[in-house]
Specification:
about 150 residues
Length: about 150
């Protein structure tokens, strides 16, 4: 174990220990139930402590955008394709979905933006075989020959 400097020892002795209490934060008070359900799904799908206090406002915006997308989708299903309000609602849904996707990327909820889920989701045996662009079979190494 490395030796601690005098400055580090002094800092640890004089700074109060701040307990971590937000492992899986609950939805904020006053959040609509549809957005709160999205909040609970997002928080439960990520690792504990993924959402720190400074990300709660962005997470709330993401949840509201997703709840609005769900509402607009049901409204579009209800009114039908031929009406003039369909185009307006469809444009609104597209812009809300794009905004929700940008929030999800910023929060690292999507598989591509989350390096941990990308590494966990990768098949470890995929790179062992020949690549699709390799026409010839792999030549055996000297130590592999019998």
């Amino acid at each position: 174990m490395p030796r601690k400097s005098a400055n580090e020892i002094d800092h640890l002795a004089n700074s109060p220990a701040v307990p971590w209490t937000h492992e899986r934060p609950d939805p904020p008070q006053g959040m609509p139930e549809a957005a709160a359900a999205v909040w609970r799904d997002a928080v439960s799908s990520m690792k504990a402590r993924h959402f720190s206090k400074e990300t709660h406002a962005l997470l709330a915006r993401y949840c509201h955008a997703m709840a609005e997308c769900a509402r607009l989708e049901t409204e579009l299903d209800r009114i039908g394709v031929g009406l003039p309000s369909y185009d307006r609602l469809s444009q609104r849904l597209n812009s809300t979905a794009a905004r929700a996707l940008s929030y999800a990327r910023a929060l690292r909820l999507t598989p591509k933006s989350n390096l941990e889920s990308r590494a966990d989701g990768r098949d470890p045996y995929r790179s062992m075989g020949p690549r699709p662009w390799e026409d010839e079979p792999r030549k055996s190494k000297l130590w592999e020959q019998q």
